[in-house]
Design a protein that fits this description.
The structure is a single chain. The protein is built from 14 helices and 14 strands. By secondary structure, the chain is an alpha/beta fold. It folds into two domains: about 150 residues, Glycerate kinase, domain 1 (Rossmann fold); about 220 residues, Glycerate kinase, domain 2 (Alpha-Beta Complex). The strands form three sheets. A six-stranded mixed beta sheet has the order 3-4-5-6-10-11, with helices on both faces. A five-stranded parallel beta sheet has the order 2-1-12-13-14, with helices on both faces. Helix 1 crosses helix 14 and helix 7 runs parallel beside helix 8.
Length: about 400
């Protein structure tokens, strides 16, 4: 092996949901890799798909500082929420899940899918406006809500009437009669909002927000029917008030319909874009420039399976790596044949982190050493490959 051959390895994983953030995964891979190949250069570029972990991934790229504001969780309880502001004060970033996420609710607490509101996310966006920021990135994954973004819009000045009275905290009330945009925050006219979204669902129907995602948030079949009916009524009223037909657009059903609410808000903004989550995070973290100087890229996510084909981080990285001509590996807590095939189509080899049969709880508890061991194993395999290449290139 030519000892002068040192690699620049780009580590660009997503989080392992419920176990490690993307930052922790990248650091664990780097730790394991350097045990086997200490001379290689590790470039950490953790990613996210617009859900939880998006802020951490963006912050890790540098040039940002954490901010805090008062907000409320999905059930209206006060909390302190975090968001990011660029060092020059011009740009901001927030996650809907930071206030309105399912992870904000205690696991032993009964779910309240009919009452959950995205109001707190609107409060964070309002705080960003208060800070004078007008260029904002927003990730909308991981919500606990199915309110069509009505709470978020209410925090920005939209009012609703049901039963003849204003509704201070909007929810799926059956007698919703009016959606009023007259008091919408005028500062929104100067806002450039880019939304990171990792799903393509419409608002309504069998593939919509209520049918697909509400059961994951604690909704029973009768709750799903009530939410679907409420969303349909809400859509009629908000579309009429905004002049935007958005219910059938790709991503309208994201975050319990928050994608729809934001789309209807678009005419009142300076600019609006709904972008695949991993693509937007790559843009914000300067991924392409880092990839251009790499010899190898390693990505990963909690599960590399059939869902990987639907815009997940590992697929996004594999595509970029293939286009740039950079070899790519992926690690996953689990790797199915379907997931491996999706990545293999782009020249990426998927490797599971489990080295022996293990219960899920044990795997999640031991995630850091398992990921580090996988990083070391991959480095040793690369070293063997270099030895083979060196031998083949040697004179007979």
């Amino acid at each position: 092996m030519n000892e002068a051959l040192k690699l620049r390895v780009l580590l660009a994983p997503d989080s392992f949901k419920g176990s490690l953030t993307s930052v922790q995964v990248a650091r664990a891979l780097a730790s394991g890799w350097t045990r086997a190949r200490p001379g290689d250069e590790m470039i950490l570029a953790p990613l996210a798909d617009g859900g939880e972990g998006t802020l951490a991934a963006i912050a890790e790229s540098g040039g940002w500082e954490w901010q805090e504001c008062d907000a409320h969780d999905a059930l209206g309880r006060p909390l302190t929420a975090r968001w990011l502001r660029s060092l020059d004060g011009e740009r901001g970033a927030l996650e809907l899940a930071e206030a309105s996420g399912l992870s904000r609710l205690p696991v032993d607490e009964p779910r309240a899918p009919l009452a959950a509101t995205s109001e707190g996310s609107g409060e964070i966006l309002r705080a960003i406006l208060d800070a004078g920021v007008r260029h904002v990135v927003m990730g909308i994954g991981g919500s606990a809500t199915t309110d069509g973004g009505s709470g978020l819009l209410h925090a920005l000045g939209v009012w609703y009437r049901g039963g003849g009275s204003p509704t201070p905290l909007p929810g799926p009330i059956p007698d919703l009669a009016t959606v009023d945009l007259a008091a919408l925050d005028t500062r929104l006219r100067g806002l450039e909002l880019r939304v990171a979204c990792d799903v393509t669902n419409p608002l309504l129907g069998e593939l919509g927000a209520a049918a697909v995602y509400a059961p994951q948030k604690g909704a029973w079949p009768e709750d799903v029917a009530n939410l679907e009916a409420w969303l349909a009524r809400y859509a009629d009223l908000l579309e009429a008030a905004s002049g935007v037909r958005a219910r059938d657009k790709s991503g309208a059903g994201a975050a319990g319909g928050a994608g729809f609410g934001l789309m209807c808000l678009a005419p009142n903004l300076r600019s609006f874009e709904l972008i695949p989550g991993v693509e937007l995070v790559m843009q914000e973290t300067g991924f392409d420039s880092r990839l251009a100087g790499a010899d190898l890229v390693i990505t990963g996510e909690g599960q590399v399976d059939a869902q990987t084909a639907f815009g997940k981080t590992a697929l996004g990285v594999a595509r970029r790596a293939a286009a740039a001509g950079v070899p790519c590996l992926a690690v996953g807590g689990g790797v199915t044949a379907e997931g491996a095939a999706v990545l293999a189509a782009h020249g990426c080899v998927a490797v599971p982190i489990l080295d022996r049969p293990m219960a899920l709880r044990d795997a999640m508890t031991k995630a850091t050493p398992l990921v580090a061991a996988t990083g070391e194993r991959l480095a040793r395999l690369v070293a063997v490959g270099a030895l083979v290449a060196d031998r083949q290139g040697s004179p007979a």
